[in-house]
Each structure stands twice: as structure tokens, then as C-alpha cells.
Structure to design on (128 residues):
């Protein structure tokens, strides 16, 4: 029987943790440092003891330290609420990590647009 058929149990749990944490942060977390964040991905350890929660923030990189501190301070509350909403044998410790991929993608897109604009300005004349 194939071991990798469809989603693995761990993948489903990671997605459920991501959805539930996003809902808890949106509706119940009252820390003003956190503000508007988006949870992009969750990776859980093989023993389900630790979860790396990747997030992006609309606050920008200048407020990143405050957002991260707010999430770390709230991790006990978030873990407790998560434990009430999902049923696995132990609720994982939450470790928050800033996801730079969105900002990196935006910078790459801007560079490509700039290069295309420069290329359009320096196109050789059309040959007859």
C-alpha cells in the first residue's frame, strides 16, 4: 500500500493548526503588538511536541520585533486555546518564525518590472 497517498495525517494536522490559530489570533487575541498578521505555514515535529508557525505581517519589517514579541508572549494562551479546539494527544509548543518569502517575492517582482522597463527603453530598432 502506498505510504504517500493524498495528505498525510501530519499535513492535515498542520493545516488544522494553522486555521485554528489564525481564527484565535483574529478573534480572541487582544495584544495590540500583533495586529494584522497572516499565518502562512505550520510545520510540526515528528513527535507532535513542537510546531513552527510561519507568519507574515502587514506592519512591515520595522515593527517585526514587536509583532514577534507579542506572539511569543501570547504563545501560552494560543496553545491553551488550540488544545481546546483540536484533539491530538498533546498540544505542541508554538514557535513563531517570520516568513520572508512574501517580501522576497515582492522585491523580485519589482526587480523584474524594473529590468523589463529598462529593456523596453533600450530595445534595438526593428529591422526591415
Amino acid at each position: 500500500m502506498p505510504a504517500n497517498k493524498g495528505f498525510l495525517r501530519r499535513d492535515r494536522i498542520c493545516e488544522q493548526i494553522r486555521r485554528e490559530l489564525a481564527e484565535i489570533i483574529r478573534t480572541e487575541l487582544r495584544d495590540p503588538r500583533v495586529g494584522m498578521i497572516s499565518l502562512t505555514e505550520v510545520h510540526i515535529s515528528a513527535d507532535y511536541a513542537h510546531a513552527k508557525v510561519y507568519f507574515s505581517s502587514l506592519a512591515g519589517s520595522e515593527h517585526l520585533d514587536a509583532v514577534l514579541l507579542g506572539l511569543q508572549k501570547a504563545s501560552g494562551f494560543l496553545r491553551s486555546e488550540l488544545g481546546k479546539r483540536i484533539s491530538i494527544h498533546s498540544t505542541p509548543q508554538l514557535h513563531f518564525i517570520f516568513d520572508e518569502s512574501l517580501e522576497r517575492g515582492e522585491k523580485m517582482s519589482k526587480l523584474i518590472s524594473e529590468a523589463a522597463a529598462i529593456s523596453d527603453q533600450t530595445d534595438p530598432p526593428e529591422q526591415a
